Amino acid sequence: MKVEKSHNMISIIVVNHNYINYIDQCIESVLKNNSKIIKEIIVIDDASSDGSFKWIKKKYKKISKMRLFKVKFKNISKKKKFYKLTFLSYQLSRSTD
Q1: Per 3-state DSSP, what percentage of the chain is helix, strand, and coil (rounded to 5)?
Q2: How far from 87 is each of 70, 83, 90, CA to CA, in Å?
Q3: Mean local confidence (pLDDT), 64-90
Q4: How far is CA 28 from CA 1, 10, 66, 76, in A?
Q5: CA–CA gap between residue 76 and residue 74 (Å, rounded)
Q6: What is the largest CA-CA distance in the chain?
Q7: Looking at the whole model, is its pTM more than 0.85?
Q8: DSSP bridge partners of 43
Q9: What is the pLDDT of residues 9-35, one digit of tens each?
Q10: Which one of 2, 9, 71, 80 is separated from 89 by 20 to 30 angstroms, measured CA to CA?
Q11: Cα 72 vs. chain centroid, distance in angstroms?
């Protein structure tokens, strides 16, 4: 498969909130894909209290395509949180164009 340098690149966005038991499997699955088409992997941690943010940061610190962010959306509805995370993901994925 021939991939041009700046075309057909994708951003993978992973949202985490206390998924320390599953996040590794998710990220490893992404990393096993065709890395030539993956521009970046954006992980947004929504104030996890299970240590998953620190664990991700330590384990994947050498992955240059990995961008890790921590946010804290407290006291808002799940629907509003979904919209905020979706908009933030869009902004972050566009910030490297």
Answers
A1: 35, 25, 40
A2: 15, 6, 5
A3: 82
A4: 22, 17, 12, 31
A5: 6
A6: 47
A7: no
A8: 14, 68
A9: 888 989 898 999 999 999 999 999 877
A10: 2
A11: 15
> What tens digit of pLDDT does each residue of 58-75 get?
999 999 999 999 988 777
Residue that has been written with the tokens 């943010």 in this structure = 53
Residue 14's H or E segment, with its range, is strand 10-16
Please give the single-letter amino acid code of residue 83.
Y
* Sign of torsion over alpha carbons 91, 85, 71, 39: negative
Tokens representing residue 81 in the block: 């949180």
- The rounded radius of gyration (Å) of the Cα atoms in the chain is 14
Which two three-digit tokens encode residue 90? Answer: 């869009």
Tokens 């972050």 sit at which residue?
Answer: 92
- The tokens for 12 are 């993978």
